[in-house]
Amino acid sequence: MIKLKEVAFRIQTEQILHNISYTFHPGKTYGIIGPNGAGKSTLLHILSGLNKPSAGIATMHDKHIHTIARKQLAQQLAVLQQEGLPTIGFTVKEIIAMGRFPYQNLLGIEERSSDYVEKQINVAITKMGLGSLQTKKLNELSGGERQRVAIAQLMVQDAGIILLDEPTTHLDIGYQIDLMDEIQTWKQQQSLTVIAVLHDLNIAALYCDELLVIYRGQLYAFGSPEAVLTADTIRHVYQAETMIQMHPIKNVPQVILSPK
Ligand SMILES: Nc1ncnc2c1ncn2[C@@H]1O[C@H](COP(=O)(O)OP(=O)(O)OP(=O)(O)O)[C@@H](O)[C@H]1O
Fold first, then answer.
1. Shortest-distance atom of ligand 1 to CA 34
2. pLDDT at 82
3. Which residue numbers delimit the ABC transporter domain (predicted)?
4. Whose Cα sits closest to atom 12 in ligand 1?
């Protein structure tokens, strides 16, 4: 369980986040939404231990997140590396295998058997549809293929909490749906907690149990997609006119753009 209590974050004199309190429960999918510059990534960096709150507390299983040792934290919490993958020298399979770093000692010796690790890697390669690309180098892949490599690397990390910063960026709609479906299935099989910054409100409504709206560094609204995604909230937060309709099959709200 991750708990935020009156969390604030400041860079020099600029207050980026104000007084955010929220509890993330195990096994749920959370979407963090809000306009550009609202503070979504900054909040994700607090959850991942990268940012230390300048006031308030952020805990995971009752420990201050930023004080947990990096490898220990990485065994419990995995963060999608948007730009962090090595671009030269390594094959797709080697890069995915790097997701095992939290389970290796200083000499690089893995704590689990090589059979277990090989199986984990192959499962991730299959799930992400990377079978035919596994011997390629990253610079030979498209943006969408790289994104799938990053997710596969996350899968082998075996963490219970997954943080994703705009995971569907660079993906066409087919891969967006594939990726979110895959994350959903993976989440259900492993009882994961997923916390994702999402720009696409319809994807957020389809895949998240709860949404948090960050607006000007504050938690402006939170709750089920149905409670949060109203035309009034969207108008206030994004200055955009929309209409909300229920999805005919999934029974979740969908946002229809309504230009002037
Ligand atoms: N290192 C930094 N130094 C100064 N200001 C920063 C820094 N990082 C972020 N900010 C500011 O903090 C605010 C929130 O940034 P953040 O990246 O968290 O927003 P976001 O909601 O994720 O935006 P986007 O949707 O555009 O990715 C912005 O005004 C940004 O300019």
1. 21
2. 59
3. 2-241
4. 16
CA 232, CA 220: separation in Å to the nearest integer? 12
- Alpha-carbon distances, residue 53 vs 15, 40, 44, 169, 204 (angstroms): 11, 14, 11, 27, 26
Separation CA 187–CA 10 (nearest Å): 33
**Which residues surround ligand 1 with Cβ inside 6 Å?**
11, 14, 16, 34, 36-42
CATH number at residue 161: 3.40.50.300
**Nearest to residue 214, comparing CAs of 226, 195, 197?**
197
- For residue range 192-242, what is the model confidence (pLDDT) as tens digits? 999 999 999 999 999 999 999 999 999 999 999 999 999 999 999 999 999
Please give the tally of structural domains in the chain: 1
Residue whose Cα lies nearest atom 8 of ligand 1: it is 42
Instruction: Give residue 155 CA to ligand 1 midpoint distance, Å.
Output: 28
Residue 44 CA: which ligand 1 atom is closest?
18
pTM of the model: 0.92
Range of the domain at 243: 2-257
pLDDT in tens, 67-113: 999 999 999 999 986 577 776 788 999 999 999 989 988 887 888 88
